Amino acid sequence: MTTTAVAAQTDLRSQYDRDGWVAAHAVVDEGLMAEARSHVDWLLAKHPGVRPEQLHHHLMTNDPFWVRLISDPRLLDVVEQFIGPDIALFASHYIAKRPHDGQSVLWHQDGSFWPLEPMEVVTLWLAVDDADVENGCLRVLSGTQNQRLLKLDEMERQDDGRNVLGTGIRPSELDESQAVDVILKAGDVEIHHPNIIHGSNANISARWRRGLTIRYIPTSTRIVSEERWAGAFLLRGRAHPNVDNRYHPFPLFVGGEHMPFHDWQAWNEYARSWNATNGFAP
Fold first, then answer.
1. Which residues make Cβ contacts (< 8 Å) with residue 151, sequence separation at least 6?
2. C-alpha dist (Å) from residue 18 to 21, 140, 253
3. CA atoms within 13 A on the CB side of 146
4. What is the DSSP string of 181-206?
5. Residues 57, 91: contact at Cβ < 8 Å?
6. Which helix (H) or strand (E) holds 88?
7. Measured between alpha carbons, how far is 145 from 122 in angstroms, rounded to an integer?
8. Cα(188)–Cα(184) distance, rounded to whole angstroms?
9. First CA to last CA distance, the chain
10. Are 193 and 122 in contact (CB under 8 A)?
11. Which residues, in sequence order, are CB contacts of 180 under 8 Å at separation 6+?
């Protein structure tokens, strides 16, 4: 079953509550998406031993373009509809599938992997390229957000080097005939619940399929373990006084060290102001 997932951007929450996911279209402009595509290339050149599906946030904590992208006010305006005005980044990850060689993502629930209490979190899947069936678009099983989160030891190991996670839900435990292909244009976003079952097929096309997952939490959600997740940023609003999440200062662009982007001067000015307001030393 295929859908373009058209939803009115003023009524995103109703479909999300019903289906566990929703898409918003033309959220980010093509100019920024072109820079994001260049950013993937830049990261791959900087980390030549890393597959393009594995460009995790820990490679980008001090990367001003990435922080500028995940904190774009157009994205945060979408996020605020789901988790409120006090917004932090929990984690982020480019899943970039090369032409003819892009790995699949096994069926899974995001929350199974995350040390969050409570599990109040929303994912924005930002299409950096057009994503369709041929190049391995996101697939979702609508309504499965109402199922309990599986534990990792309840899932099946498939560490064959041909998929992104190495772990997935057993196909016998779901009905793949009900899968919805989420077809997106670059600059669209798909928003989904931490319990919804989703995945994607391999990219067998001659085109890239680059996407950026961005996991946003309200500042009332506690990151229980920082062992793999020490990359949090306060992005909008205020930190919660009774939650001890550790947030990083916004990084400044430095020529010769970071990938140049068109509004880096405005970003540096904004980042300095944000850091000062939130108690980070200059």
1. 112
2. 8, 13, 42
3. 6
4. EE-B-TT-EEEE-TT--EEE--B-SS
5. yes
6. strand 87-97
7. 12
8. 6
9. 52
10. yes
11. 1, 2, 3, 5, 139, 140, 141, 142
Residue 117's Cα: distance from chain center in Å? 19
Dist. CA 76–CA 124, nearest whole Å: 10
C-alpha span between 282 and 270 (Å, rounded): 13
How many other C-beta atoms lie within 10 A of the C-beta of residue 16? 21
Supply the pLDDT for residue 6: 37
User: What are the structural domains of the chain?
Assistant: 2-277 (2.60.120.620)
The tokens of 243 are what? 């939650």
Q: Which of 3-12, 202-211, 228-237 has the lowest mean pLDDT?
A: 3-12
Structure confidence at residue 2 as a pLDDT band (50, 70, 90) = very low
Output the six-digit token pair for 125.
């899947």
Longest CA span, the chain:
54
pLDDT tens digits, one per residue of 54-69: 999 999 999 999 999 9
Tokens of 82: 């789901």
Question: Which of 70, 114, 13 shows the shortest CA–CA distance to 236?
Answer: 70
The pLDDT assigned to 229 comes to: 66
- Bridge-based pairing of strands 180-182 and 233-236 is unpaired
